[in-house]
Amino acid sequence: MYLCKRMRSSAKHRFLLSMLFLSGFSLMYGQSQTKYVPLTAQLEIEVIIPISIAKESNLSFGFASPGPGTGTVTVTAEENPQRTASGVASLLPSTGIVSAGKFRVTGTPYASVNITVPDWIHTLNHQGGTSSLNLELTSSATNLQLGAAGEDVFYVGGTVTMWWGQELGQYTGTFTVTVSYD
Description:
The protein is mainly β. It has one domain: Immunoglobulin-like (Sandwich), CATH 2.60.40. 11% of the residues lie in helices and 39% in strands. The chain contains one helix and 15 strands. It has one helix spanning 2-21, and strands at 52-57, 60-61, 64-65, 70-75, 83-87, 90-91, 98-99, 101-106, 112-116, 122-126, 132-139, 143-145, 151-163, 171-172, 178-181. Strands 1, 4, 5, 8, 10, 11, 13 and 14 form an eight-stranded antiparallel sheet that branches. Strands 12-9-15 form a three-stranded antiparallel sheet, with no helix packed on it. The termini are far apart.
């Protein structure tokens, strides 16, 4: 009887040991078979032409004269700008150039472009003096649709305010325009 118990115990141990080494049975070590499940994700990128801007002409008001009081001179934001005076300002025949600022935008064909022209009052300073004039800018567009060649233009005009006793001479200043893809 003792031999029978020992054989049963030995058979039981062999059975347990064989179960540990069989592939697919591993309670002690977790899951022995890993399932591979592929998942596909899409990757997207849009390569575009960098946007650029170039100035083709400056904003120029020509010659004007102040009168007794306050007056303005305006240049419209277009290819062939109109120059007008109001208040006590007078336009003088201009041997210089009268032009709107012209800017060419280049980028991806048919892209929509936002244009930002500053809407605050700029100061024009007298060359060689201490006097100044105020300038308010206007733009021909706030956005553009570039054409098939990937370019278009916009114009910047403005209004200068002057007054009696204004120091005579040339006044200059700068402004910045910004373009970005929509």
